[in-house]
Amino acid sequence: MSSSKLVLVAGGGPVGLLCALQLGRAGIPVRVFDANPCLQDDPRAATTHPGTLDVLADVPGLVEDMARVGLVTPIFQFWDRPTNTKIAEFDHAVLMNDTKHPFVIQCEQFKTAKLLLSRVEKLANIEVMFNHTVTEVEQRADSVSVKVETPQGVETHTGAWLIGADGGRSTVRKQAGIPFEGFTYEERFLVLTTPFDFAANRGYCERSYFADPDEWCNCFKVSADGPPGLWRTVFPADSNEDPEKTLSDADVHARMQKFFPLPHQHDIVHRNLYTIHQRVAGTFRKGRVLLAGDSAHVNNSIGGMGLNGGLQDAANLSGKLADVILNGASDTRLDLYDKQRRTVTNEFVQSQTIANKKRLEARDPETRAKNFAELRESAADPKKARDFLLKTAMVAMQQRAASITLESN
After folding, report:
1. Cα separation of 273 and 239, whole Å?
2. With 180 labelled, which of 155, 172, 343, 383 sits at a CA distance of 20 to 30 A?
């Protein structure tokens, strides 16, 4: 491939693959590097919001395929865990005039990646190179080069642009000298997955959030390998505790029995412990280096906004970069990408996910009562429900991004 138009992509997850697919569909040569030997099947993000589905609909059949291998879930609920009382229920149907997809699709991240890869592999102008780890980045006025560790040794690849979609510990971001500003939470997030049917046995819908001053919880369903599917529960965990103890059978089963007591132990098919950050890169563009997804921003998972933000980054970036490469547009289009996506990341993703966590973990009785009253009021009033859902569904975020120009404040 000629390097004059070649776009290099570090990271072969959903964000990197969507960038590659959209650039490749436009006729631009792309080379993707991924450190793993193949796509990873580890369970991560699953929720895909209406605002993101609207973006993904540009890829023929993708949303339909995601619905086929995932779960379409229009409703989510808030509960008070200590009293097991449902506080509020929201139905995305109120957004039917605001989005073509008034529902969420619970499609695990690795399934989305597989659907994207299957489309990427049909395009001759895209190379996907697994077991290739980007380790160094060097920019020049008209090109950018990367050193890549491969099973055959170190290689150097040169292209016109480099997209860093290589995760929260992004080598591309670090090599470009871009700061990653924000903070790390004191507690970790513990994810426990079980086939136990919380809908049939407890009446929870497929996305449920539980407020608790001592131990909040999220509970949501994924299709996994097909019916009957699996349920993921997410709890806060003490970061000062030995991770082996937190993940031990004794502690895991005690936590699940506290959440939903059974005369026998819950069947736990997966468990993981995460350190959680709220961070945003100082810029999403530095010269010929562009950041998208977790390389550019990370956040807590309550509300399912992280991967959604990354996929929206990819759609925004690939369109603007194609305009620069193919149509001779000014590279200030990429400065606009930075401004649009970094602004909405801070205004929506960061602020919303921080607020989501505070709502669930609130300890003060008056604050809890106020939170519950606001949720009930919003759910009961169609206008307020719509305003609430426009934010949580990330539709308002897309509208805000589209309104931003380089000249606007």
Report:
1. 10
2. 155
Whether the link from the prior residue into 228 is cis, omega within 30° of 0, is: yes
For the chain, what are the domain ranges? 7-181+278-403
User: Which two tokens mark 405?
Assistant: 């120009």
Which of 34, 52, 36 is closest to 164 using CA atoms? Answer: 34
Q: Please say whether the beta carbons of 77 and 89 come within 8 A.
A: yes
What's the fold here for domain 7-181+278-403? FAD/NAD(P)-binding domain (3.50.50)
How confident is the prediction along the chain (409 residues), in pLDDT tens digits per residue? 556 799 999 999 999 999 999 999 999 999 999 999 999 887 678 999 999 999 999 999 999 999 999 999 999 999 999 999 999 999 999 999 999 999 999 999 999 999 999 999 999 999 999 999 999 999 999 999 999 999 999 999 999 999 999 999 999 999 999 999 999 999 999 999 999 999 999 999 999 999 999 999 999 999 998 889 999 999 999 999 999 999 999 999 999 999 999 999 999 999 999 999 999 999 999 999 999 999 999 999 999 999 999 999 999 999 999 999 999 999 999 999 999 999 999 999 999 999 999 999 999 999 999 999 999 999 999 999 999 999 999 999 999 999 999 998 7
Tokens of 262: 């059974």
Tell me which residue of 366, 392, 368, 367 sits closest to 379, measured CA to CA: 392
Q: Which of 373, 374, 371 is nearest to 213 (CA)?
A: 371
What is the C-alpha separation between 201 and 198, in angstroms, rounded? 5
